[in-house]
Every structure is written in C-alpha cells, then in structure tokens.
Design the sequence.
C-alpha cells in the first residue's frame, strides 16, 4: 500500500472513532490519521492516498474542523492521488441531508482531479435525500452512529475490502 492518510472532522467523537477503525482495518501508521484542521499543502504532498471523512452538522454542512481544510483540498492538484470519502450522520433525524458533508468532500476532491474510489450501494439505508448520492450510490462510506451503530463494523469491513486493492 502506498502512503495513505486518514483525515477527519469530528465534534463528539463519532467520525474520529470511525477514522480509527478504518485505520486499524487498513493497518495504517496511526501518525497518518489526523484531524482536518491539521491539513495543509505539505501534508497533501506527502501522501499518495487520502481517505477524507466528516460528520454532517447544521443542515448538511461540513463538520467545523473542515473549515480551512476544504479550501486546502480545493486549491490542491490531486490528479496523481487516489481519494475515498467517508462520513457519519443521522439518517432518521436529518433524513433530507443525510451525510451531505461526505458529498461536499467528494465534489471538492473530484474537482481537484483525484481518482475517486469507494462508492457504496444505498441498499439497506433508509433516508429521504442526500447530496452524497450520485448515480444511485453513495459516493463513499455512509455511517449512522445515532441509529445504526450495530452495522458500522460490518460496513467498514466491506468498504475497506473494496478499496484496499486500489490503495
Ligand atoms: C445540530 C445537529 C445538526 C446535525 N445535522 C445533520 C445533518 O444535516 N445531516 C446528518 O446526516 N446528520 C446531522 N447530524 C447528526 C451528526 O452528524 C451525527 O450525530 C454524527 O454522528 C456526529 O459525528 P461527530 O461526533 O463525529 O461529529 C446533526 C446533529 C446535530 C446535533
């Protein structure tokens, strides 16, 4: 596996726990797992693969730690990099903006030229709308620690198995 970073934004720890679980499943050095507030151009330059994660806040917004980080992504040339996105939200309480932040990360990385991997079927999820859905699939790994935490480990394992050969 090439140099891989996991970058996340998390307010109450859910997305952070998910990042750490993905880290453990991939066997990445824990030094390469850090918050989006620490993301800068030099960090991006030192990795081949980026796994970008955010919980969704407000009404479909990125988690706060992405405030500057999303601008770093937008201003980077990711054309030689592979990127996958993940996110957590509340598919019941925020059913019309479920995991929208993951869609925002996806669009920014895709526009910056990254090779995007890791789309996931929406089968088995219940929600009304999400900007993280494109062509009938989630653009990355959508998780719901508020209502479906019992499914998290299985969903992570399946996603990691799918993306690992491309990393
Ligand atoms: C005020 C508030 C707004 C939220 N807005 C959304 C939303 O628009 N879409 C969504 O999917 N989840 C939303 N959530 C749910 C959180 O994303 C969810 O609880 C998540 O697991 C928090 O992860 P974190 O601890 O990593 O920040 C919201 C939660 C709160 C309390």
Sequence:
């Amino acid at each position: 596996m090439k140099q891989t970073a996991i970058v996340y934004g998390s307010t109450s720890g859910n997305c952070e726990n998910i990042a750490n679980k993905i880290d453990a499943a991939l066997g990445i050095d824990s030094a390469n797992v850090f918050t989006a507030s620490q993301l800068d151009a030099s960090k991006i330059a030192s990795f081949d693969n980026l796994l970008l994660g955010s919980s969704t806040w407000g009404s479909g917004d990125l988690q706060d730690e992405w405030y500057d980080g999303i601008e770093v992504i937008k201003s980077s040339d990711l054309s030689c990099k592979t990127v996958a996105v993940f996110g957590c939200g509340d598919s019941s309480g925020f059913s019309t903006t479920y995991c929208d932040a993951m869609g925002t990360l996806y669009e920014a990385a895709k526009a910056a030229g990254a090779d995007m991997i890791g789309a996931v079927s929406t089968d088995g999820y219940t929600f009304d709308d999400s900007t993280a859905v494109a062509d009938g699939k989630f653009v990355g790994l959508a998780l719901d620690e508020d209502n479906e935490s019992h499914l998290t480990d299985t969903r992570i394992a399946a996603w990691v198995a799918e993306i690992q050969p491309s990393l």
In short: The chain has five helices and ten strands.
